[in-house]
Design a protein that fits this description.
The complex is a heterodimer.
Chain A: E1 9-11, H1 12-26, E2 30-34, H2 44-49, E3 54-56, H3 61-73, E4 77-83, H4 92-101, E5 107-111, H5 129-134, E6 140-143, H6 147-159, E7 164-167, E8 172-174, E9 189-192, E10 197-201, H7 206-218, E11 223-227, E12 230-232, H8 236-246, E13 249-256, H9 261-272, E14 277-282, H10 292-298, H11 303-316
Parallel strand pairs in A: 2-3, 2-4, 4-5, 5-7, 6-7, 10-11, 10-13, 13-14
Antiparallel strand pairs in A: 1-8, 6-12, 9-11
Helix pairs in contact in A: 1-6, 3-4, 7-11
Chain B: H1 9-24, H2 29-34, H3 36-46, E1 63-66, H4 72-82, H5 123-136, E2 143-148, H6 155-167, E3 172-178, H7 187-191, H8 196-202, E4 206-210, H9 216-228, E5 236-241, H10 264-272
Parallel strand pairs in B: 1-2, 2-3, 3-5, 4-5
Helix pairs in contact in B: 1-4, 1-10, 3-4, 3-9, 5-6
The chains are: A alpha/beta, B alpha/beta.
């Protein structure tokens, strides 16, 4: 198996913030909005360098989304960012009507997603956002895995016309994808080619999936490992090509199993290539307080959980 | 700009409204009839707009955001009469395959519409984005909105009112259709807005009251006054006192006409009261 290494752990939200500052320099139409969490979503550098293009609404997520939609009428490219829960569930109707149905070029940037928010507990742990967003017609939904990929994705969505939901997180995670990579929306990244099982992972679950694959390969199980950074539109071709080889699927995400990438892949396979599948995901419940690592372990969203899921699915083949 | 004198529009737009709602046997005639003078003043007198060059982008012209999206009959009639699209298309209102959706959409490509509305309370926030975008573009054009008074019960409105006042968004004129009527009854009975003028002023807005919101000249004068208050560090609110259903005697002042279609007999009675000043669609 191809060897993946990293020199440091970095947070995905910093990849977003650093890219946003670059975008500010490249394109004067880029504007940034947040709702009282500029520091948390790493917008401080942008705000300092471009104070005239930075808009802090205070604690007003609904107003922020409406404003973002309005900015597009004047040719601006708004990047609106706050915690994933507050920029999805809290403002779903605003996103639905003023952004998605109105076909506005708004970039909805969701930080602090999933269980890895940690100690704040369930109110702050968005585990339903991918599902809500993928149900909106015309919405592109992306969940990146590390600092470099988040940075590349942020730069890429600025060039993509139309609404985008970009999901990233709070913790420092291995930064293993290439610096200055080209990010292609809707094109999955094949991390390893194998023939026994397909592992499709997104976001913070990609690195544990690599570790699980290494362990499995060491036992002689050949793993086709794919980073599904774009949940919608789904890279159906890459997924189907993989499953044709392996005949077994494990999907991995920091999200409720309902509505997530596992469900999207299951729906695809049901239609085109019915295949045994195991879901590494939160099993329809809310999160709780704890460290990110404690929670990811409890809910099975770690290397061990993925490893075990592969063993289970191989028994179903 | 127009060969037709402006006074000819209100009766004709009212004819369009009652005929459209009757034809579709659905829609919202009450608030539509009440705001005809506002729409006429805004689209035929006040705003600097160019229907022939319409783009979903609003750069380089005054911009109108309809926040209480249900009053599409008056909105669509005004847009058509102003030249955004052929008046014959009004006959497709709310029908299968139409660009004239029940509530305004961008998706269907109707000229004149730049944002969807219908779910209430969102338009002021959108307008704030447009207004601040215009400032970034060094564009001195203004942004206008219309809201129902009942719509002001939505929390998001007050987020936007707070923001606009605190940040001094002074290229914005937000008009409230102050007819004291909503679906369940009088606004005062359902959930009173209290002293609305004082509330806007407490949020650092300037307020213009148009007492005769169904008097075209009074509306024009009031909107000019509102315009004169822009550019002075505060957003401007217009409290437009209107009568729901204005112009049709049996509908006037009756909240039950919020979203009810006319039957054949009612249409006939209404049209008698509304002269065909321009050509019917």
């Amino acid at each position: 198996m191809k060897k993946y290494t990293y020199t440091e752990k970095k947070d995905t939200r910093s990849g977003f913030g650093d890219a946003l500052t670059i975008l500010g320099r490249q394109n004067e139409n880029v504007v940034a909005l947040t709702a009282d969490v500029a520091g948390s979503v790493k917008m401080t550098d942008f705000a300092k360098e471009f104070p005239g293009r930075f808009f802090d609404t205070g604690i007003q997520e609904a107003n922020m989304i409406g404003m973002a939609a309005g900015f597009t009428l004047e040719g601006k490219i708004p990047f609106a960012a706050t915690f994933a829960e507050f920029i999805s569930g809290r403002v779903y109707d605003q996103i639905r009507q003023a952004v998605a149905y109105s076909e506005k070029n708004v970039k909805i940037c969701a930080s602090h997603s999933g269980l890895t928010v940690g100690e704040d507990g369930a109110t702050h742990q968005a585990l339903e956002d991918l599902g809500m967003m993928k149900m909106l017609p015309g919405m592109t939904v992306i969940n990146t895995c590390d600092y470099n990929q988040t940075k590349a994705a942020t730069l890429a969505i600025a060039e993509h016309p139309g609404p985008v939901y970009l999901r990233f997180g709070r913790p420092k995670v291995p930064n293993f994808t290439p610096a200055n990579q080209n990010f292609e929306i809707g094109k999955a990244v094949i991390l390893n080619e194998g023939k026994d099982v397909s592992i499709f992972a997104t976001g913070h679950l990609v690195w544990p999936a690599i570790e699980a694959a290494e362990k499995l390969e060491a036992e002689g199980i050949s793993v086709d490992l794919i980073n599904i950074h774009t949940i919608k539109p789904l890279d159906e071709e890459t997924i189907l090509n993989s499953v044709k080889k392996t005949g077994a699927v494990v999907t991995c995400e920091e999200h409720n199993r309902f509505g997530g990438v596992g469900e999207s892949i299951a729906a695809l396979l049901t239609n085109k290539l019915p295949t045994p599948q195991e879901f590494v995901a939160v099993n329809d419940r809310f999160g709780e307080s704890g460290t990110g690592n404690e929670l990811m372990h409890k809910y099975g969203l770690d290397t061990e959980g993925i490893y075990k899921a592969v063993k289970r699915v191989l028994n179903k083949k | 700009m127009h060969n037709t004198t402006i006074e000819k529009y209100p009766p004709q737009i009212r004819r369009d409204i009652v005929r459209m709602v009757h034809d579709a046997q659905s829609g919202h005639p009450g608030g539509s009839l009440g705001t005809v003078e506002f729409f006429t003043a805004l689209f035929f007198k006040i705003m600097d707009i160019d229907p022939g060059k319409f783009s979903v982008k609003s750069t380089g012209e005054d911009t109108f955001i309809l926040s209480n999206g249900h009053i599409t009959p008056v909105y669509y009639s005004t847009l058509a009469r102003r030249g955004y699209f052929d008046i014959r298309e009004l006959a497709t209102f709310r029908r299968f395959g139409t660009r004239l959706q029940g509530h305004p959409s961008v998706h269907d490509g109707l000229p004149g519409v730049r944002i969807a509305s219908g779910s209430l309370g969102q338009g002021l926030s959108v307008a704030l984005g447009v207004a601040q975008g215009k400032k970034l573009n060094n564009d001195t054009h203004l942004v206008y909105t219309l809201h129902g008074d009942g719509e002001l019960q939505e929390g998001q409105i007050w987020e936007a009112v707070l923001y606009a006042g605190a940040k001094g968004i002074d290229n914005l004129i937000a008009t409230v259709d102050y007819n004291n009527a909503q679906i369940d009854g009088k606004v005062d009975d359902v959930l009173s807005l209290g002293n609305l003028k004082a509330k806007f002023e407490a949020f650092n807005w300037k307020v213009v009251e148009i007492k005769e919101g169904n008097n075209l000249q009074a509306v024009i004068e009031g909107l000019y006054q509102a315009k004169s208050l822009t550019g002075k560090g505060k957003p401007v609110a217009v409290l437009l006192h209107t009568l729901m259903g204005y112009g049709v005697d049996f509908m006037q002042g009756d909240y039950r006409w919020h979203g009810k279609p006319l039957n054949d007999e009612q249409l006939e009675k209404a049209l008698v009261q509304l002269p065909e000043t321009l050509q019917d669609y």
